[in-house]
Amino acid sequence: MKSLLAGILLLGFVTSANAVFIDNGRYTTDTTSGLDWLDLTETMGMSYDTVVTEMAVGGAYEGWVYATGVQFTQMVANFTNTVALANDDLHYYGEGPDSIDQLVQLLGNTNTVNPTNIATALNHSYGLIQDELGYSYIRMAVIEDKAESELQQDYSKAYGGALRRGSSEHIVGSFLVKASVSVPEASSLLLLGFGLFGLIVGARRQA
To answer: Which end of the chain is less enclosed by CB atoms within 10 A, N or C?
Structure first.
């Protein structure tokens, strides 16, 4: 019984100590940052100004806001278990269990040439962020999952391009975030562990 309790408590600590990304269909939850990330395919082909308009009360993206370059960089670092670099730095990745491939599938593959999301083909997540470049240009963050047949490495870059506020590209969406209401705190996980322990002990006493 003691080992069972220790296992339950350890589970709570492991869950809160390591980055866990939850696929909720329309959005992905980063439990480390406590942010939900809207799927890029929801906003593909829409300009920055159009998306902002839809953030108003009653709009399609009410409650969502544009992610910053800092938030994007930290989210990628959380997923890959790497150190977040400066926003304007490229970060390269290999083909491993914590590679960028799965993150592209979670956030949305904006490569319309590969609509079936073939894992070995070229995939990418291109999305506008909150940061402005100036002269009415908005920054674009990119995650590039190269085809396995290519010699180039996968990479991410918070400031990988820019578009005019009112312009749009069919392969570019928007990185929108909001505070998640489904991320359990470490204390909640511990309480859950004690609750399960109590149920098990109670069941044994009745047996």
So the answer is: C
Q: Is residue 8 part of a domain?
A: no
160-195 pLDDT, tens digit per residue, is: 999 999 999 999 999 999 999 865 544 444 444 545
CA pseudo-torsion sign 180, 186, 192, 193: positive
Containing domain of residue 76, as a range?
Answer: 22-199
Number of domains in the chain: 1
The DSSP line for 62-105 is: TT-EEPPHHHHHHHHHHHHT-----TTS-EEE-SSTTSSHHHHH
The pTM (predicted TM-score) of the whole model is 0.78
* Centroid of chain to Cα 117: 17
CA distance 109 to 122: 10
